[in-house]
């Protein structure tokens, strides 16, 4: 392991408790199951909701002047290196970002990356250019061209917390013209009952204090029950809250790494007060144009 490359690992653990039934799956009317045929919350679903909340929060809090400008050299019409300036923001604007857009500013798109990969002038510095010109949220959660630094395990049922079986939710479709039920439109959907608890385990590596603050702001919304999961959220399903077990959360940086690996020293406990410091670091970043 390269000690210069590895300089922090934040581990957060806890439980996600359902306040209402949850219907989340890979399609159809069933629920997602793990290898033991027990309901679970796929890590991709929780991670996607977390990322969407972080992006929307940063877009709402960002002010003019927080974007940075990067200069890269691309091959010009005459074959010589031509300086090109890029604007890099804290997060993408998911409303107008298209993967085939060659002129998008604020982050990168698949079309831009493909062009850069084929550019003979930029190729020797391609890795550095991709990192420098990708928005902060994409660097944190990952893109097709950059590995993310947030690792989240599937949320599996805590032993003894599962209620007996699944609950069924029925319904039917109503005609807009006649305001009556459509023939044959009845359906039954399964859901995980309220009160079920799922294990939560997130690892964040090589993140700055402000980036750790981004994750913690998103998790704070989960703690408050502000983020729903799964389908039929408009009908009251998918509500829950996250309970972080701060005594089991850990933080290790480069100074503690050798002791943790060679001597077996336990990483330091990551407390709620330290989480507040990381959120304050994010606030300082947002206040600095």
Low-confidence stretches: none
How many strands appear in the DSSP assignment? 12
Give the mean pLDDT: 84
Distance between the termini: 36 Å
Helix content: 25-40%
| SSE pattern | EEHEEHHHEEEEEHEEHEH
Number of helices: 7
Radius of gyration: 23 Å
What's the main sheet like?
6 strands, antiparallel
Q: What is the overall silhouette?
A: globular
Question: What does this protein look like?
Answer:
There is one protein chain. The chain is built from 7 helices and 12 strands. The model has no long low-confidence stretch (mean pLDDT 84). The two termini are 36 Å apart. The protein has 289 residues and is α+β, with helices and mostly antiparallel strands.
Helices, strands, pairings?
Blueprint: E1 8-18, E2 40-41, H1 43-61, E3 68-75, E4 81-88, H2 110-117, H3 126-133, H4 136-141, E5 150-152, E6 155-156, E7 167-171, E8 187-191, E9 197-205, H5 209-223, E10 240-244, E11 250-253, H6 254-263, E12 268-269, H7 272-287
Antiparallel strand pairs: 1-9, 1-10, 1-11, 2-6, 3-4, 5-9, 7-8, 11-12
Helix pairs in contact: 1-5, 5-7
């Amino acid at each position: 392991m390269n000690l210069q490359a590895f300089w922090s690992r934040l581990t957060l653990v806890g439980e996600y408790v359902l306040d209402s039934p949850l219907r989340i799956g890979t399609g159809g009317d069933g629920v997602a199951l793990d290898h033991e045929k027990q309901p679970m919350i796929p890590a991709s679903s929780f991670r996607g909701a977390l990322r969407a909340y972080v992006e929307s929060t940063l877009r709402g809090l960002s002010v003019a002047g927080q974007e940075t400008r990067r200069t890269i050299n691309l091959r010009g019409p005459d074959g010589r290196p031509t300086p090109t300036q890029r604007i890099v923001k804290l997060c993408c604007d998911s409303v107008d970002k298209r993967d085939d857009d060659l002129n998008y500013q604020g982050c990168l798109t698949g079309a831009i990356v493909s062009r850069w990969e084929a550019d003979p002038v930029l190729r020797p510095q391609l890795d550095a250019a991709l990192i420098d010109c990708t928005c902060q949220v994409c660097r944190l959660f990952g893109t097709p061209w950059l590995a993310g630094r947030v690792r989240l395990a599937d949320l599996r049922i805590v032993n003894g917390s599962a209620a007996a079986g699944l609950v069924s939710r029925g319904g039917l479709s109503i005609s807009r013209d006649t305001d009556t039920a459509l023939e044959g439109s009845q359906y039954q959907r399964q859901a995980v009952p309220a009160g079920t608890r799922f294990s939560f385990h997130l690892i964040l590596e090589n993140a700055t204090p402000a980036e750790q603050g981004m994750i913690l702001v998103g998790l704070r919304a989960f703690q408050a029950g502000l983020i729903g999961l799964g389908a039929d959220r408009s009908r009251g399903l998918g509500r829950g809250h996250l309970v972080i077990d701060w005594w089991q959360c850990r933080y290790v940086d480069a100074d503690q790494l050798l002791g943790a690996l060679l001597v077996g020293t336990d990483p330091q406990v990551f407390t709620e007060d330290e989480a507040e410091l990381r959120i304050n670091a994010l606030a300082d970043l947002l206040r600095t144009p």
